[in-house]
Amino acid sequence: MDGIYISGGLNMITDKQMKALVELTQQKATRDKYRGRTTWVRRWLFLHLLIGAKLSVKDITQLRICDVHLNCSVNYIKSFKGTQIIIDSALASHIREYIQIKQVRGEPVDSHDYLLTPSVDGRPYTRMSIYKLYHGTLKNAGIQRMKFNDFLMSITEVQRLSD
């Protein structure tokens, strides 16, 4: 079903736009990884956590390495509220790879450190830095300006329709 999802009058992202967004983010992340940069590597993990684990922005910004359990019979993430969210093997592999990249770059990777940080200093993302990350990602994907909350709501709506 490809179309704009309307929920309460909000401008929603289409399946086609979401697919383009994911593909572009993956491609740019792969390019950045081989060039020794992490801008798109971080953006891709953020998007993958958002759509793959259905984590909230707050969960992602507060996610610490100790909250990610990858060496269990079932891989899961402990959310900000303490809920265990089962993740698939693709997302688990992606997180493992990202932690390795952080380690190689000399970024903090102790269990108490934040998983996703905007820079090497280890401080977590702020709401504003997530907003900038989001706008940069959508702009590169050629998606019209969309309010951040509309984008988050549309991801939830697309996931609900695909479940």
Question: Mind explaining what this structure looks like?
Answer:
This protein is mainly α. It has one domain (15-162): Orthogonal Bundle (hpI Integrase, Chain A), CATH 1.10.443.10. The protein contains six helices and three strands, in the order αααβββααα. A three-stranded antiparallel sheet has the order 1-2-3, with no helix packed on it. The longest helix has 20 residues, at 15-34. It is globular and about 40 Å long. It starts with 14 loop residues before the first helix and ends with a helix.
CATH class category: Mainly Alpha
Q: Given the C-alpha coordinates, what overall shape results?
A: globular
Q: Detail the poorly predicted runs.
A: 1-10
Total strand segments:
3
| Run of helices and strands | HHHEEEHHH
Largest sheet: 3 strands, antiparallel
What is the first-to-last residue Cα distance? 13 Å
Please state the average pLDDT score: 82
Helix percent band: 40-55%
Number of helices: 6
What is the count of distinct domains? Answer: 1
What is the strand content?
under 5%
Radius of gyration based on Cα positions: 16 Å
Q: Largest beta sheet: what is the strand line-up?
A: 1-2-3
CATH architecture: Orthogonal Bundle
Question: Helix/strand/pairing class, anyone?
Answer: mainly alpha
The H-level CATH homologous superfamily, spelled out, is: Intergrase catalytic core
CATH topology group: hpI Integrase, Chain A
